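Hello forum,

I keep getting stuck at the same step: I have a sequence, I want structure tokens, and every attempt I make locally crashes halfway through. Rather than fight my setup again tonight, could one of you with a working pipeline run this one for me? It's a single chain of 282 residues.
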Amino acid sequence: MPFNTDSILKQSLLLLGFCLIILSNVNGQKKLLKIYGAVAINDSVFMKSTEVTVKEWIEFIVNNRFDTTLFPSKIALSKTISEIFEDLKKVDQQKYFIFKTQSLASYNYNPVVTVHYSSYLDELLQADTTNVTINIPITGITFEQANKFCEWKEEILNYRRSIKIKLSLPSIDIYRSAIPNIDSLNVKKCAQFNWAFCNCATITKNKQAKSQGKALLRADSYWPSNLGLYNIQGNAAEMTSKKGIAMGGSFRHAARDSFNDKIQTYQISEEWLGFRYIVTLK
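Reply #2:
Ran it on my machine without issues. Output:
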């Protein structure tokens, strides 16, 4: 029986068109989801590349009229970070902060009020021997506070967006797929993330490394994972969408606790517990 070349050609063209539609939809969805500071986990989920920082949390509080229910627990913060938040409570009399109101034209990317910092803050941070910065992960917060942050940030990012996105805490399954389970040390015996009691062979050459295994480090410390995620293992353990369950380990946990088959449990705010968010379509 002879081949019907016209029929085969039509079927091939239909299949090609179908594939192009699927590819277009996937790429379109990625474009709609993509926001600054987030990386693709799969075709429908973006994740913040770093843990949410102290700096971001300060902006959250300021843009919510210094709501006292949003402040982190003082007992779960270092002395220096605690002092910074205590100063923030002194509305209109702060020593470390300068506030500037932005136009609504930029509201879809930035908060209405942006926070700048005085030279007094530089002096405070330089005096801290642990090399702390406002770019370390925010800790000492509750599950409810983390969700309120996601709601606030979602509103900012959705301003003037025709197709809305949703920000939320990642599920346990997302963490299981995103955590790469890298070894704690590289071939030079240097730590590849911040876990309890880790020491780097070149620790004396790196000021920040002196706090390695003892305290939180910058949220963008170390090399990112293949997906582009910083500190998805170690530094601060991260809240999942299930209250009381965190993943990824922290500077208070053993390196093995950072793997994707391990969890950390919590009941209250902790010095080692932070979060990052995911972005999906509503």
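Residues 18-26 have pLDDT under 50 and may be disordered. If your local run keeps crashing, start a new thread with the error log.
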